[in-house]
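Section handout 9: paired folding examples.
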Amino acid sequence: MTVLVLTVLLQVFMRYIIGSPVTFTEELSRFLLIWLGLMAASYAYRQRSHLALDLLILKMRGRQKVVLNVIIHALIGLFSISVLVIGGIQLVYVTYALEQYSSALGISMGIVYIAVPLSGVAITIYAVDFILQELGLRESDMVTETATSEEDLHTG
């Protein structure tokens, strides 16, 4: 994030203050944003801080709640494997096979796109971990649990 901000600031400074824009900063900031977005998505999922519609979960108790949570995390894991991991690996392979390089930086586009399967692997690992936690096969490593019932929301 720091490198991204510094890159954009350098571009703004060079373009508007000096009057001579740097050629690589726009491309570098775009690539850093791709990496930042995908890695942040997997981190946010791990922290359970993604936007979620939990109206149905809040109404459930006991076994129903566990089953629904397992289904949700299983669907997230399946999406992650099929789209991010498999699709991302295919994307990286094609860009390496076609020898695609970025125009300003001259780096292989496979390096840029490797963020897709990496974030997919992380999300898949987290989904499996959450399923194991829901089934009671692994303890939660979260320091503070989020409110998951209406009583917690009203008393909190």
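Moving on to protein 2 of 2.
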Amino acid sequence: MSKRLLTRFLGSVVKSGTLEIAYADGTHEKLGTPVEGFRDVAIRFTDDKAPRDILLDPRLGAAEAFMDGRLVVERGGIMELVELLRSNQPWDRGGELRGPSLRKRVINSLGFARESVNNRIGAKRNIAHHYDIGNDFYRLMLDAEHMQYSCAYWTTQTATLTEAQEAKLAHIAAKLAIAPGQRVLDIGCGWGGMAIYLARHYDVRVHGITLSEEQLALARVRASEAGVSDRVQFELVDYRDLAARGESFDRIVSVGMFEHVGRPQFEAFFQACTALLKADGVMLLHTIGRFGSPGTTDAFTRKYIFPGGYIPALSETIAASEKYRLIATDIETLRLHYAKTLRAWYAKCEANREAIVAMYDERFYRMWTFYLAGATAAFEWGGMGNYQIQFARSRHALPLTRDYMAAEEAKLLSR
């Protein structure tokens, strides 16, 4: 029964491109039609339970079957399989892949609601789950120069991941409209790439905060190696506690951190940012976002990748900031930049497969590549993108037009 239902479900999805399925009982199915630009993939199930697991919760069931070796991709890879499925159901044209069963949806919704309440202890635990798995691992995947674990910025001049991440840093720095002598706060500073970049290019003092002990240790080493330790400080502290200390900054930047805040804390985040930002200050928030209306986090992502995380819709992000009279002075939507970034990370993971398996095991490698493949498809064909939102507390804090951004960005990239 599960085999027949799964074939019917996949057959309703795969129209362009082909998917060959070999079931554990020896039966075979071939779905779809060859179409230029669409993938040709073959998969094999090693037991009869995998089809049922996928039907109950397609994303989690497929992920765990792939991680455990019960779903084997025999032609193509996991990236090609996910791309084939998602490209046949593009979000832009109303497409949506089958969701979990009603029972699974109820369980997932309750779990999402419970986990999204990120108090200080829970937030640190959730961050450690993802970011404290080892700096050596992230070195294998990220760009060597800046170690940026966030969406790069791809232009006609960027050919490599390193160049695209450098362009991202310049793009964001230009939007901060920095003046000499200012104090800058980097919320969710990662391995220090943004803080070090700003200290290198501007006469500023930067305070980076993180909840990851692994990131903190390496960020301090990298700042020392870059010769900016006298102007860059890193601290293991929650943004709420920093605000409670009465600190204030001329500029705030936060890249790839808002996704970890959790929906119930959106207002607390912006309340803290308002308290931390001087009256004439400027803030730049770079975050993954949903193109459509608010949603929930799927069970696979919650269980294995980002516990407590949530990708916000633009509407709920702006609604939370409005309550504290933060003016959204500029909003930019990055549509395909993260897809290109994720493909670059996936390629680096493939190239370093043996090293990653040696660090952890084959199951971890499959989990991670499933995550990267699913995320890539979400940005290429699903409802995900990136937003860069510039905020100010005063309407007089910035020039009247956006010309200063392009001029400053060009100057930074010419150095």
